[in-house]
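Re: How this chain folds, sequence and tokenised backbone to follow
Notation: Tokens come from a learned vocabulary of local backbone shapes, not from coordinates.
Start of record: The labelled sequence and token lines come straight after this line.
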Amino acid sequence: MKKKTIVGIIAVIIILVLGIIGYFILTNNNTAENKNQSNQNEITEDEQEKDTNETVTIEGKSLVVYFSAQGHTKAVAEEIANQLNADVFEITPKEEYTSDDLDWTDDNSRVVKEHEDESLQKVELTTTEVPDWDSYDTVFIGYPIWWGVAAWPVNTFVSMNDFTGKTVIPFCTSTSSGIGESDKLLSQVSNTGNWLEGQRFSSYPSDSEIRDWLNQFK
């Protein structure tokens, strides 16, 4: 084989190798850039969502609406109302829940049956009408977490009221569960109003915990 031919073959091989190396470097760079851009977009979206709550200032008249099965949510609701000098409205089922009704470990208890049969979750309330409803600019809605969602009597209240023009701020109490999608699901039930991200409290939060949360709206 002639020397020129060998040199030519070697040159082609070098070009091919360099081309392959360059391709992988370019591909990896593009992948890294896309990943970085995706992460940046996620951070930006998170910051925007966070900023949405942080930049909201409570103005006008406020109302704290709540359903409380065992008194935990009631205590938080009353403290919120106390700190904001807000009015309070309690959601009360026509058929009140007894301690036996709330025993989620008993397959025959009311809450278990309602959980298993969604048609039973349309709990009838003593009333869904709030006096001077139109006068409130901000509405806090509190509830205990049942099976990862808001206790269903709250759905009845939300579905029967128009939140147009109101800022709605959910909060919940639970022993261990997080707020999950409960705040977003309630906003979907309503389909009106400016619903903010909700806040989860333990069953026995301190007044300072509640105050620290409320400070973002002042």
